[in-house]
Design goal:
It is found in: Cytoplasm. The chain contains 12 helices and 20 strands. With about 425 residues, it is α/β, with parallel strands linked by helices. The strands form 5 sheets. It has a 10-stranded mixed sheet, with helices on both faces. Strands 14, 16, 17 and 18 form a 4-stranded mixed sheet that branches. Strands 3-4 form a two-stranded antiparallel sheet. A hairpin with a 2-residue loop joins strand 3 and strand 4. The longest helix has 17 residues. The mean pLDDT is about 90.
Length: about 425
């Protein structure tokens, strides 16, 4: 049985958490393959809003096993808080939540390093979530990191101390003032480590391999978005992991030949949190309306998201590098009420028209070229049937399918899991 992938195709915040929750009933295993608590996957059902940061979005389904893969970085303190928030739902976490021994740990000093690094950059800040993600991945690639499996070793605390001593020395070299009490941070950290130890650690690549052999249905869940990929995103305003389809192979130990469908999630418009280029960003009343109606605030940081028209140049690029086989459009309801919609279909790049994403998309190099379409006024949030959608939205969907050459198989018309329309 092949492993299906679910990925965000923009700068994150596409609505992956909701779709994983909707699709989980079709799968036996949901596996996170990269990222860490900088992710914020929002799920809403029965009038309750849930935000998950590290735990896979299938955790509310009794029949699904949820795996935190080796490509993920885990902050035990945030993980503990997630677990505590789930207690009232009577979820058997020891049975339904498994953690890869090869997943790396975020230490308190990783967060301090993150803050020191970002502060030292001044106006050149990259918009880090300050969760310690970057420094943890740096330790991983530098072969200094601590992993979940190290918790089981007798000398774990000695390994921890050696690494934190090194971190404190590095912090002092930034020449910025960072106030902290490491003893307090460490007390909270080791308390969280004990909670982590109460869960089941696994050799995840072997577990998933056996699941594939036993014809289990597996969905790999990505975090952030493709345009934040460390290699293929808008560098340096990116995250520190591979958010694209290739990241699922290294983040779970799955061979490329075992990948099945690639499900790409995108918003009917575009948003971005933090710094970085954004060709279709709107600074007018239209952009403000998108943000207000769409409740565009980061699930992890609470930061206001920047809003703009759908960028098909960037979206086409993401479809291409991921090998997307199905598209799922989120927040179509947010566009209700606009008389005219715009879609960026090409860029004017250094004086010539192009349809591919160039090396640099800073505003001095790129001007978006738009196609205008008629909008719709109808409220979509109570519609259940694809055929009941307004004709203008159907025209919008048809236009996107022709441009992207991939079918849009799902349209979301609201935040609740029931506000989802499946298309054949």
């Amino acid at each position: 049985m092949a492993v299906n992938l679910l990925l965000g195709l923009q700068w994150g915040d596409e609505g992956k958490g909701k779709i994983v929750d909707v699709l989980t009933q079709e799968y036996d295993i949901i596996a996170r393959f990269q990222g860490g608590p900088n992710a914020g996957h929002t799920l809403e059902f029965n009038g309750i809003k849930h935000v998950l940061h590290t735990i896979p979005s299938g955790i509310f389904h009794e029949s699904a096993i949820n795996i935190v893969g080796n490509g993920v970085v885990i902050d035990p303190i945030i993980f503990k808080k997630e677990i505590e928030a789930l207690k009232k739902f009577d979820i058997d976490l020891k049975k339904r939540l498994l953690i890869s021994r090869k997943a790396h740990l975020i230490l308190p000093t990783h967060r301090l390093l993150d803050a020191a690094s970002e502060t030292s950059k001044g106006k050149a800040k990259i918009g880090s979530t300050l969760k310690g993600i970057g420094p943890t991945y740096m330790d991983k690639t530098g072969r200094n990191g601590l992993r979940v499996g190290d918790i089981e070793l007798d000398d774990f605390k000695e390994r921890y101390r050696n690494l934190t001593d090194k971190h404190e020395e590095m912090i002092s070299h930034y020449n910025v003032e960072i106030q902290y009490n490491l003893a307090e941070l460490e007390a909270e950290f080791f308390e969280a480590i004990e909670v982590l130890k109460s869960l089941q650690f696994i050799d995840s690549e072997e577990y998933i391999h056996q699941a594939i052999r036993n014809n289990k249905k597996i969905l790999a869940e990505g975090a952030q978005g493709s345009l934040l990929d460390i290699d293929f995103g808008t560098y340096p305003f990116v995250t520190s992991s591979n958010t694209t389809a290739a990241g699922a192979c290294t983040g779970l130990g799955v061979a490329p030949t075992q990948i099945g469908d690639v499900l790409g999630i995108f918003k009917a418009y575009t948003t971005r949190v933090g710094s970085g280029p954004f060709p279709t960003e709107l600074f007018d009343e239209t952009g403000e309306t998108m943000g207000r109606v769409g409740k565009e605030f980061g699930a992890t940081t609470g930061r206001k998201r920047r809003c703009g028209w759908l960028d098909l140049v960037a979206l086409r690029y993401a479809v291409q590098i991921n090998g997307v086989t199905q598209l799922m459009m989120m927040k179509a309801d947010v566009l209700s009420g606009f008389d005219t919609l715009k879609v960026c279909t090409a860029y004017l790049y250094k004086g010539r028209e192009i349809k591919h994403l160039p090396y640099n998309i800073e505003e001095q190099n790129v001007t978006p070229i738009y196609t205008e379409m008629k909008g719709w006024a109808q409220d979509l949030t109570t519609i259940k049937d694809h055929n009941k959608l307004p004709q203008e939205l159907l025209n919008y969907i048809d236009f996107l399918e022709k441009e992207l050459e991939v079918p849009i198989t799902l349209v979301s018309v609201g935040p609740d899991r029931t506000q989802t329309i499946h298309r054949k």
